Amino acid sequence: MAAKNVEEIKAESNGLRGSLREEIQDGASIHVSEEAAQLLKFHGSYQQDDRDQRIARKQQHLDKAWIFMIRSKIPGGALTAEQYLQHDRVAAELGNGTLRITTRQDIQLHGVLKGNLKGCLQQINASGITTWGGCGDVVRNTIAPAAPLKDEAHEDAQRLAHELSRKFLARSRAYSEIWLDGEKLDPGAASAQEAEADPVYEKHYLPRKFKIGIAIPPRNDVDVYSNDLGFISHVADGRVLGYTVVVGGGFGMSHGKVDTYPALAKPLFYVPRDQALDVALAVVLVQRDYGNRTDRKRARLKYLIDERGIDWFRDEVCKRFAGQSAPARSVRWDTVGDMLGWHPQGDGRWFRGVWVQEGRVADAHGVNYRSAFRTIVERFRLPVRLTTNCNLILADVLPEQRAEIDRILAAHSVPEPATLTPMRQTAQACVGLPTCGLALAESERAFPAVLDQIEAVMSELALSDEQILIRMTGCPNGCARPYNADIAFVGRAPGKYALYVGGSITGDRLAGLHAKTVNQEDIPAQVRELLSGYVQQRRPDETFTAYWGRTHENGPAPHPSQFHVELARRAGAKLEPAEA
């Protein structure tokens, strides 16, 4: 019998239940079936295996070292002290002892065994956070600027993120039945769980994942153009009057599919603030009704818009939206970076943005992030914000607490922002090996050493103070958003990367292929060549982004054909990215 496709699995799942309950209770097996694994994503978990152990276990005729990744859904990246500490405890008791901050302001727990899945999800939900909808063909976690500034723009962005999260929570009671023994989700989500029929998702849910981001100019810290749907705040006289809506972003390129590619979101129109939620619903419904359900690799919103045109899409949205719209507003950006270090919130309190290397909250390599954060949050009961650059913000700090927090961070060897170059502050890598099933090369584990070498080059060229956006991924799926970076390295084989150049420090321009294959040891020389031209030809105070746009035409846009050999041999793997 032929294996069912994902659309069939969803339709026949009885509200995303399938055989999950029975398979989770089966203590004789250390993994779940392929069908159950597809449904498990909707519940916030990916089935993986430790790839570092594959060869040795195969030689010993052993099954793979099956493990599970758990992803919490955290709108706007906002956590109470207890919610953060609960994740810390679960990571220690049931995971691999680390927390991974993701590019969507989630927390991922890695290394969870099947027998611990239910306990893990129960403990996370007990704190008022859920994993329901953290993965799967639904609206994923809604991201928003994490800085806890007490101005209307930042507070409204957080409000809108939570409104959108509640609006698009799947209504099936499967999650509470399987994991919570019938208990409802947190109070904010309970109203969405009362009815089993789902007017948004129906029985097929969406054709693929759907991502929403909210941005506040001039800081594009959420990379708004990489989202299926983006809201760009328009503020006047201290009030949020409305949002410019952009649609059709997404960076994934699918294995072996030459008609897939990354795309930046396009302007749709401008709407008043009180109509933002209605517009979001209309956009999601158009994607639900017209998105590609026969070719899963072409199912994201960006392909629908490219096939039908932005004017057609706007007309379809307006058929489902009774409000008023106007032409999109012009926008100016200056950086994708976070507000690191100390900043006043505007209410007499302060926040401290802490740079976290690759978002990995761990006690390792001489830097004890996890112990430092746990000590501070326990002692001062501070709320936490997670950023889309995979950093962490300690919020609501009293002025008299600042010195002690600095002391604790220093005692745990957590780097001060002043000791980091602007390049390193914004650099980013995906998880990659050993847990991602798609990784073709190292990413998170290799990136720090690569950055050390790049920093040495920049120092020699007197560029240490320059803002240059550099990113790395282990495969072309683009989880760390490489395709709008100034310089990016995308894994194609062990120790080999495609080099892309020409994105921007503001996240609003796609990069082009500069070199199809670069060995990891040759990366410093390649960067030196790029930066030497910048030094020789730059104008006064010109950024690398502006220099490249003025002096170069980008190479070919990112495309799967650039990874033909590597992707062709993986085309039958039927794997999907876990998205760091």
Q: CATH topology of the domain at 148-170 and 205-333, anyone?
A: Sulfite Reductase Hemoprotein, domain 1
What share of residues are in beta strands?
A: 15-25%
User: What's the average pLDDT?
Assistant: 94
Q: CATH superfamily of the domain at 148-170 and 205-333, called what? A: Sulfite Reductase Hemoprotein, domain 1
Helix count equals 19
Please write out the topology.
Layout: H1 6-11, H2 20-25, H3 34-42, E1 45-49, H4 54-59, E2 66-71, E3 78-79, H5 81-94, E4 99-101, E5 107-112, H6 117-126, H7 152-167, H8 174-179, H9 187-190, E6 212-215, E7 229-236, E8 239-247, E9 266-272, H10 276-290, H11 301-308, H12 310-319, E10 341-344, E11 350-354, E12 360-361, E13 363-364, E14 367-368, H13 369-380, E15 384-386, E16 392-397, H14 402-411, H15 422-426, E17 428-429, H16 447-460, E18 470-473, E19 487-493, E20 496-501, E21 512-519, H17 523-537, H18 544-551, H19 564-568
Parallel strand pairs: 6-7, 17-18, 18-19
Antiparallel strand pairs: 1-2, 2-5, 3-15, 4-5, 4-12, 7-8, 8-9, 10-11, 11-16, 13-14, 15-16, 19-20, 20-21
